[in-house]
Each structure stands twice: as C-alpha cells, then as structure tokens.
Structure prediction request, 196 residues.
Amino acid sequence: MFKPGKAVEGAHQLTAVVENLATGLQGSPSSVYNFNIYTALPVTIMDDVGSSQTALVNNAITDDATPTLSGSLITGLLSSEELAIYDTVNGVTSKLGTAIINGLTWSYTPEVALADGSHVLMAAIQARGSSDVAKTHIASSSTTIVVDTNPGVPSQAVNISTLEMGAKARYIMLRFSPKARSESLIARIYLRLWGL
Ligand SMILES: [Ca+2]
Prediction:
C-alpha cells in the first residue's frame, strides 16, 4: 500500500513501477490510473421567474419551481464520474438528475417542477449512475429554498413599527409588523433617497 502526502486539487495520474534498489533497474510500468481530487464544489441557484429574478441564498423563497443550479469545476470529470443534484424534502433525499457539463462549467435545471414547499438542494460529484448520497466524491454545501408558486397578494394590514436609517442615509428601511404572510419573510421597503 502506498499513501501519498497531501495531494493537490485537480487531475492526477498514478503509475506504479518496480525498481531494483541495488541497480536502479526498473520493470515495466503499470497502466496509468487516473483520478481527480476535489476540495470544493461551489453552487449558484438562479431564479428566473417573475418580477424578482436573482440568485437564491439559503432559506430564500422563490416562485421558480425549476431553478437552475450551476457552477464551475477545477478539472474535468472522469468518464466514470457525473455531477448529480440531490433534493431533500421532509428528510427524504432523492437524486433529481445529472448536470450538463460544458468544459469546466456545469448547469442543471429540473425537468419536473419542484413541488411547493421546502427543498434542500445539493450538488455532488460521484460515480456515474450512483444514487447513493453517502458515497459521493465531493458534495457541495446544501441550500434550502422554499418554492411558493402561488404566493398571491398579501392581504394583511401592516403598521410601520420601526425605522432604521443607515449611516450614510442612502436608504431608509421601514420594518412592518406583523410579519408578512410567510413567517420567514419580513416585508421590507427600501426608499432610495436621490440627491443625498
Ligand atoms: Ca422569482
């Protein structure tokens, strides 16, 4: 068994050869063994539906049931690997599909709309065809999004409860109570003060 020191992220090729320590003569080398080392898998999730179209941060609420996940790679995947997308709903994790890879960038858009509710999305590089989230080569961090394709118009009456003014007074933030229709959503209005 050979255990290398800390290996660098990227593509590696290993070859083994038997060497006579006394003479330095070497036998025939083995065939090349290719493998990749990944240390990070960044993911961006984009909402391209409705009036608010933006990258979705953790716990974002979105009206896009088919948000696009994308990212870049430090090295091309091996032919034995794929980049899979996993979705966890109510604690149950399932593989949504595999990303389209173009050079060192990848993207994935769900073919079937995600159901309304909470989804924990994660990308992973793994053996081609695997659906075992426990056996990935590397997994991205997870991002929770809340799909709400029928948000409707808020019907609550609101009151201005506090007023915050930034140090440079470019924005004034009015915070309303009660909270908006979704408890995780705080209604905010930003007033741009031109000329300040
Ligand atoms: Ca949107």
